[in-house]
Amino acid sequence: MSEKKIKAGVVGATGYAGAELCRILTGHPEAELAAVSSVSFEGKKLSDIYPSYYQVCEPVCGKQEEVVEQCDVIFAALPHGLSQELAAECDAKGKTFIDLGADFRLESEAEYQEWYGNSFLDPALHEKAVYGLPELFREQIRGKKLIANPGCYTTAVPLALYPALEAGLIEKDGIVADCKSGVTGAGRKMTQNTHYPELNEAFTAYKVAAHRHTPEMEQTLSKAAGAPVKLTFVPHLLPVNRGILATCYARLKPGVTMESLSRVYHERYDKEYFIRLLPEDRVADIKNVWYSNFCDISLHLDSRTGTLVAISAIDNMVKGAAGQAVQNMNLAFGLDETAGLRLFPPAF
Fold first, then answer.
1. CB neighbours of 158 closer than 8 A, spacing ≥ 6?
2. Is 267 in a helix, a strand, or coil?
3. Full-prediction pTM beyond 0.70?
């Protein structure tokens, strides 16, 4: 343990991802939660908004500029479009900035304009950003000051498919990502489709083949394939609080067997603490990753149709948001990558 703890701050601390960051950082052995901010709840303790944090995690929500001044690393848990100016401020002050939003995830400004309706305010700053999916891009993340933290779908789908694409075992065309999300993925603000009477006892697709995470997933998968990859992405909303289940379908190339698939996945992931490749008789389940930074992956081969079915499960608030952000902080500061993140899921 280092003598001096890293001072961590959270901008947007009262949203779901921000609150989860505060929970994880409170238990980190080499970092301390030094400052938080919230526009909606300025002057209130975090435990006033989340009573379960009472007498454990009770920072008072201050102003954004106070977080920047007081902290070594600033986590931005903000909606898209609100991070670029804050990132520039942190860059000018030499602070590490980890963005849980979408402002720095896409390499193409044209795609960012198409899918988010915004432009790159400072293209040179975007050149400094690295994409923070540690299991795939660890060496690019180490020591960096500006990290774009992937979200939930954009973590679960690439982790499920990357080894098969990288090894050339599946076709680049015709990939389908059929995904389900817990309602926390929609954020804390109430909307009609997340209102309890609408959500309870319901299960529906949304933003069919039009979700903003599509180009981000394609960007990562194209790196694996070494060529452009397009996929059909259909997300669904589950009436549960937490979890992402990504069921991904891809056509196998001739001669590919379960043995060859298993081999490349084990070669890619066996040394990854947070990825658990499941035995052939088990199927990934969101219940088994709750409150953890694990990604469970199960592989299935439909020999009748020549299809790989790769299923991944993550907690969308941890590996899909706050936990991965802390994992990126650990890499940026040269810490043990698992520091503060070794909690395993509850049994029930």
1. 133, 136, 217, 220, 221, 224
2. helix
3. yes
Instruction: Please write the tens of the pLDDT for every residue from 58-76.
Output: 999 999 999 999 999 999 9
Per DSSP bridges, beta strands 146-148 and 175-181 are unpaired
> 348 versus 324: which is more confidently predicted?
324
195 φ, ψ (degrees, to nearest 5): -65, 135
Max CA pair span of the chain: 63
Q: What is the pLDDT of residues 84-131, one digit of tens each?
A: 999 999 999 999 999 999 999 999 999 999 999 999 999 999 999 999
Domain boundaries defined on the chain = 6-149+319-332, 153-315
At residue 2, φ and ψ (nearest 5 deg) are -70, 155
CATH architecture for residues 6-149+319-332: 3-Layer(aba) Sandwich (3.40)
Tell me how far apart the alpha carbons of residues 306 and 207 are, in angstroms, rounded to a whole number. Answer: 28
> Do the two domains 6-149+319-332 and 153-315 of this chain adopt the same fold?
no
CATH architecture of 153-315: 2-Layer Sandwich (3.30)
Helix axes 134-141, 323-332, angle to 10 degrees: 30
Active site residues: 152
Rounded distance, CA 133 to CA 274, Å? Answer: 12
